C-alpha cells in the first residue's frame, strides 16, 4: 500500500488542529484540496479516519493508528534529512583511502586523526599499498582517494598537492659513510643498497635517478617494510634510502646514522590522486581540503 507524503502531512495537520480549514492554512492549500486528500487516504485505508461533528474533526481508532505511525515516519524523515544535510556539508560519510607506506608512516596518520576529531562520524577504510597499486585502486574505483609519490605514473588521474618528505640514507655506525653528514647520490652508488619492493615508489625513484647519472644500484636484499630495511642496515648489510621522519622511529632502536642526500630530488613530493575531485562525495572532498590547504606543506 502506497502513501503520498503530502497527504500524510495534511492528515497530521488536520489531526493536530482538529479542523480542515486550519490545516489548509498551515499547508497553504485550498480547503477543498485538504478535504480531498483526507478522503483519498480514507479510501486507501478502507475506514474513516475522522469523526466529523460540530466540535471539529476527531480521530477514529484507524486515524489514531495512522497518526502513531505518522509521527514515527515524520521523525524518520527528519533524521534522514539532517543526516543527508551532513553528507552534503562533508561531515558524515565513508572514505576509502589507499596510500603508500611512507605517507602512512609519517604525517598521514596524524592528519586522519585530526580530521576524525572534527568529524567523528566519518568512517575510513585504509589500505597500505605500493604506489602502482594505489593508482590502480583509484583508477578502477576501489578507492576514492590515493596518496602516492609524485614520480609514480598516474594514468590520467587528477592530482592535488599533499606534503613533501625528505629522503636520507640510513647506515650502521660501522659503514664507511657513517661519519659523513651528507653525500651525493653518485658516491652512495659505490655501496650496497638494501632496496624496497620493486613496485614501490622508492624503488622507482632510486633506479630512475641512478639511470639519469649512468649509475647502477647494487642491491642484493629487498625488504617489504621500512623496519626490515633498517634492521638489515643495522647489521651493516648495506645502506637504505628512507624518509627522514620514518627513520626517526628506528634510529635509536637500531643505532643507525642518518646521512643527508645532497640531491634536489631527495625532497620528494607526495600527492593526492582521484579519478575526479569534482565527482567524489562531499565527505571525500572535505578530506582533500583538510589534507591540501597549502601546496606541498612541510
UniProtKB/TrEMBL annotation:
Recorded protein name is Transcriptional regulator
Question: Residue limits of the HTH lysR-type domain?
Answer: 1-60
Any Gene Ontology CC annotation: cytosol
GO molecular function terms listed in the Swiss-Prot or TrEMBL record: DNA binding; DNA-binding transcription factor activity
Output the Pfam families linked to this UniProt entry.
HTH_1, LysR_substrate
Can you tell me which family this protein belongs to? Belongs to the LysR transcriptional regulatory family.
Gene3D superfamilies attached to this UniProt entry: 3.40.190.290, Winged helix-like DNA-binding domain superfamily/Winged helix DNA-binding domain
- Keywords, ordered alphabetically: DNA-binding, Transcription, Transcription regulation
